[in-house]
Design a protein that fits this description.
By secondary structure, the protein is of the alpha/beta class. The protein is 31% helix and 25% strand. The chain has helices at 4-14, 30-46, 63-74, 88-98, 107-113, 145-149, 187-200, 218-231, 243-252, 263-276, 295-305, 378-384, 424-432, 469-477, 505-513, and strands at residues 19-23, 26-29, 54-58, 78-81, 102-105, 125-128, 141-144, 167-172, 182-186, 208-211, 234-237, 258-261, 285-288, 310-315, 319-323, 337-338, 343-347, 361-366, 391-399, 405-410, 415-417, 420-422, 437-447, 451-460, 488-491. Helix 9 crosses helix 10 (263-276).
Length: 515
């Protein structure tokens, strides 16, 4: 089989009554889910959707998301994933850049899109999972999602699954250093990567995943959902992460074997557990990604939940790159080694030559999981690859003598102060050990004497008095080279984060740079 869609449809043919998805009180077998996916695909085809047309999903987690995602691909359209936190500026850019003709969304999405529609001539059709609450121009067709699923499935309607080289998804990057770009992921990329992931993590049809990550993101969709469908397993899908509800499920539902989250989720689960006394049942696997997992949180989860979290490393353009071992040492503060059939290396940022173990440079990856390039951005695509097909991730890191990769930051976040290279994560890890620090982000800001100065943004620890800025500077000075200590410490109530919990340093840079 050449695509994940084919694998899913084969599961539906062989085991139609097997549970695929639950969502609250709703339950969908593989057979029923496939019927709805086919109905949605045929509804698109009846309206003459051409292969390669873009269908945007601006939608919260729900069975409708799963059906639309698979159905659009079955109709040989390209799915455009849209973050539900995006508002008019981001929406306008992504929908105009992709020239999406169709968008599946809810009432909140319609309200955001309504004022933009006159400036989006390519967007002709809104498929709504809820009644739209906003007035829309007559130039846009509005159709209820459920009415499309109610249309009869016609056996005689020709259905052709997409080929392995066809583009399946446009995943837009976070855009922290400029306008986001659409990474073109082919069907072959989706299949090869999830085959490697499920092999490495021993995922089988007997597994059941609690999934509260957003499906518009690589972690939730291309790991959580794809792994479920590829293995014929099942998923307990949640609309969003609510710590109390997730902890209760992990405590009481003995069918669950897997949980995937971001560090913020694990931190919230730990807080909720300490408040209520509930503990998760033993799971086969807990995975963390999308943001760095501190060694301290790793150790606290192990001590209190009895789980050694498996940390991995991925990105929109490549899906999953490296993983700590399923069998063997899961080393805190590292992201492990390449998945089966994939490669990773560390190169000098300027000379692009491979570095020895222990030396810090930019991480590059290569393999069948790496995207085809950026949508209509040949310049950016060329700049991202070398002649041998290595993709420049933009992440700084090193490989230790045992082969484990460590992420130390983003290449663009490297601070050069007085001619010295300073990696923000190194300073963050030291500050995080101070008892008065709850959360911390370190970044560089312009400095007339040194080029850049090290700035630490600190959220005081709950229940502790706010630390004095000079105390934190001295804390670093006693533990790091003097040039690495912060020259400025800002105390804040919270750090700005994206939907996956990753700290948005570009937002901090904008806020602090204007002072």
């Amino acid at each position: 089989m050449h695509t994940l869609l084919e694998v899913f449809l084969e599961h539906a043919r062989r085991t139609p009554d097997r549970l695929a998805l639950s969502f609250g009180s709703e339950r969908y077998s593989y057979g029923e889910l496939a019927r709805r996916v086919t109905a949605f695909a045929q509804a698109l085809l009846r309206r003459r959707k051409e292969p390669g047309e873009r269908v945007a999903l601006f939608l919260e987690n729900s069975p409708a998301f799963v059906i639309a995602y698979l159905g659009a691909q079955y109709a040989r359209c390209i799915v455009v994933l849209v973050n539900t936190q995006y508002r008019q500026v981001e929406l306008s850019h992504i929908l105009s850049d992709s020239e999406a003709r169709t968008c599946v969304t809810g009432a909140a999405g319609v309200a955001e899109l309504a004022p933009l529609l006159p400036s989006l001539p390519s967007l002709e059709w809104l498929i709504t999972v809820e009644p739209p609450g906003a007035a829309l121009p007559s130039s846009v067709t509005v159709t209820a999602f459920d009415s499309l699923l109610a249309e009869p499935v016609e056996a005689q309607l020709s259905m052709t699954v997409p080929g392995s080289t066809e583009t399946a998804v446009l995943g837009y990057t976070s855009g922290t250093t400029g306008r986001s770009k659409g990474a073109m992921l082919r069907q072959s990329h989706l299949l090869s990567n999830i085959r490697a992931v499920t092999q490495a993590w021993r995922w089988t049809a007997e597994d059941r995943l609690l999934l509260a990550l957003p499906l518009f993101h690589t972690h939730g969709l291309m790991v959580g959902l794809h792994g479920t469908l590829y293995t014929g397993a099942s998923v307990d899908l949640r609309r969003r992460f609510v710590a109390s509800e997730v902890l209760e499920a992990l405590h009481s539902d003995d069918s669950l074997t897997l949980f995937f989250g971001v560090p913020t989720m694990y931190s919230r689960l730990l807080e909720e557990s300490r408040r209520t006394g509930l503990r998760p049942r033993p799971l086969r696997l807990m995975v963390s990604g999308s943001a760095p997992l501190s060694a301290q949180l790793f150790q606290e989860i192990e001590a209190e939940f009895g789980q050694r979290i498996l940390e991995r490393y991925g990105m929109t353009e490549t899906i999953m790159n490296t993983t700590n071992p399923y069998d063997g040492e899961r080393r805190p503060g590292t992201v492990g080694m390449p998945f089966p059939g994939q490669e990773a290396r560390v190169v000098d940022v300027r000379g692009r030559q491979p570095l020895a173990d222990g030396e810090t440079g930019e991480i590059e990856v290569r393999g069948p999981h790496v995207f085809a390039g950026y949508w209509r951005r040949e310049d950016a695509s060329r700049e991202s690859f070398d002649a041998d097909g290595w993709f420049r991730t933009g992440d700084l890191g090193l490989r230790d003598k045992d082969g484990y990769f460590h992420i130390t930051g983003r290449a663009r976040e490297l601070i050069i102060s007085g001619g010295f290279n300073i990696y923000p994560r190194e300073v963050e890890e030291v500050l995080a050990t101070h008892p008065g620090v709850g959360e911390v982000a370190v970044l560089g800001l312009p400095d007339p004497d040194f080029g850049e100065q090290v700035v630490a943004v600190v959220v005081p620890a709950a229940g502790q008095p706010a630390p004095e800025p000079q105390t934190l500077v001295d804390w670093c000075k006693d533990r790091l080279a003097s040039f690495k200590k912060p020259r400025r410490v800002e105390l804040v109530d919270a750090l700005p984060r994206n939907a996956l919990g990753k700290v948005q340093k570009h937002v901090l840079r904008e806020r602090l740079g204007s002072r």
